[in-house]
Amino acid sequence: MGAIRSRLRGFAAAALSLGLVLGAAACSAEEPKSADGKTTITIQWFGSPGFDQAIKDFQSANPDIVVKSENRGQLRDFQPLLVQWLATGSTQLGDVIMMEEGTLLEFLQDPSKWTNLLDLGAGSLKDDYLPYKWENGFTADKSKLVGLGTDIGGLAMCYRSDLFAKAKLPTDREAVSKLWPTWEAYAEQGRTFKAANTGAAWIDSATSIMQPYIMQNSDTWFYDRDNNFILDSNPKVREAYNFGLKLASDGLTSKLVRWTPDWDAAFKNAAFATVPCAAWGTGVISERAGEAGKGKWDIATIPGGSGNWGGSYLAIPEQSTKKEAAYKLLTYLTGKDGHLAEFKEKGGMPSTIAALDDPTFANATNEYFSNAPVGKIFGASVKTLKPIYLGPKHQQLWENVLERAMQAAEKGDLSADAAFAKAVTDGRKLATG
Amino acid sequence: MTAHTGPPRRRSAAPYLYIAPFFVLFAAFGLFPLIYTAWVSLRDWRLVGGDRGFVGLDNYAEVLTDDRFWNALGNTFGLFLVATVPQLLIALWLANLLNRKLRLQTAFRMGVLLPNITSVAAVGIVFGFIFADRYGLVNWLLDLVGADVVDWRGSRGTAWFAISVMVDWRWIGYNALIYLAAMQAIPRDMYESAALDGASRARQFWRLTVPMIQPTILFTIIISTIGGMQLFTEPLLFNYGRIEGGPLGEYQTIAMYIYQRTFRGNTEYGYGAAMSWLLFAIIIAFALLNFSLVRRSVRGSST
Fold first, then answer.
1. Is the complex ipTM more than 0.90?
2. Of A17, A77, A86, A406, which to mutate for an interface test with B (greatest number of B Cβ within 10 Å)?
3. What is the rounded distance in angstroms from the CA atom of residue B9 to the CA atom of residue B15?
4. What is the pLDDT of residues A380-395, one digit of tens each?
5. Can you tell which superkingdom this protein's organism belongs to (chain A) (predicted)?
6. Structural domains present in chain A
């Protein structure tokens, strides 16, 4: 009796340990079920690309494909996951992946984990896209196309007309656009605005001018075309850096760090009068400034006239076993119909020429921004755009190195020269490491 | 019961199987990653870019000359001291209060644990608002009473203070409950005889309670050390999810730096593994040091 009981106990313990092992093993082997011959593909995205309606439309046109749409939070949460999944060949990795421009540029250095879209027939789509958007999806030797474009970030200057009225500046968007044909003129208006003592700053942060200023005035930033690190010798970057910090030392910036709760709250508190905004940024502003800001914001052209800030791509991992179906979805979402659906849903600006010219986009106005003709303003900013070479670690060099250093200088933690020297040292380490 | 008649060999298998689940799990999720990490740390391995082969101890040599590693290590120890010392002292005081006869005794005892079961991410986000530089609650209150507002992320000291508040808010209650459990095990009659001998409450606390629960204090110190060395989420969320810990890395901890080098930047898997191993060695050394120091003081005070 006792022997039987202890043997039973032994079995129980053995079964328990076996169960634990099997349980642990089972966690990593999940297969999407292909019931009744349908192919299930997974798309993983971050931020708010506005894919919902476009995916619904795609589903009804392709009943044999089931799309699983996974929201993966913010870019900074998704990118490390993506790196891990690709490195380990994880089954959690989807079939269509959204990548921010900067992320894509990093993967282009080691494109082996991604499918060549040219092999799936993407070559014929060349003329559909804005040239720079198309070019950026390629590896350096142009043999492999990794990503096709979703949105782009055409640039404008968003401003608060109520603060402008207070400072006795013109409030009409045409007249405001004429105030600042150049960045110098923009700084000049800033000084006039400051003299009027409205209690608000002219611009949110010194770092906000970097993207548009450099995009307009240089065709390189951190790297030359051979991927040498040139931050210390790129005159236009230093010029933009000095210009931004001059705005700060003149007391025109409100010294806020972008994407922090303080920055968010500053929109509600009308703490600054202007902010360079990309097409996707109109949503960023209306979310933060809220109902109280409706009709008080307006959109004028950006000093210098053109510019692009960010934008994303879709790509297919090499390990995907359903490339045909994935490619169908990818080309739908990055095609004219997909782009227009995404624009209607979340305001992402199309990167296909046909969608840009479509009245849905071209004649669009934004109610929140005093019915500003966003299609016209943002559309014009990218038509004259000169492509700039960004290079592999651009996004991190900007966000984690130069922008940080510039913020330290703006706050006065470091001198402008010391902060720049630090950015050069840290940047070189990152770029060549 | 007839268990003694069973064959002895059969009976001896069961205990091993009972404890097997722990060892199976430990081997899979503890030992294997440890050894695998050691192996990775000897290679120049990028998550993006692949394994570039064996490099011996190069990664370790690089870590030792990496000033950002030392900066992060200094921050980690600094934050550990700034957070843990007040944390354990307040926990001790709180446990002493809870050890008295109170109304709603259970409610209070459970209540102190509530911060600990709150999600650390939620704590981090809320404290991020409380310690926001411009529109934060603390600065608003400071402004209300006419004091100067504080640029919380602007300097090492203020950032460390804010992060420590976050850590302590979560862990004081937890440690207080552990102390309370130990205090309850002290026989009441010892206090009665101390009181008869004329010892005041404070004297009873320092001369009786504290020495009696010293093994528990040692336990909390070691647990806090391990937690403190691995501090990650609080400073990360304090800086709104930015891994660099301030413009000049003023509050980047070692765990954050490991993460940054491994999963961001050049995704240096091998380098991150080398740092992880050094962190492991540091934690062990530090725990042993603590252990010997506290044990010496236990002996010193009980003789």
1. no
2. A17
3. 12
4. 888 777 778 888 889 8
5. Bacteria
6. 2-152+310-362 (3.40.190.10), 154-307+389-432 (3.40.190.10)
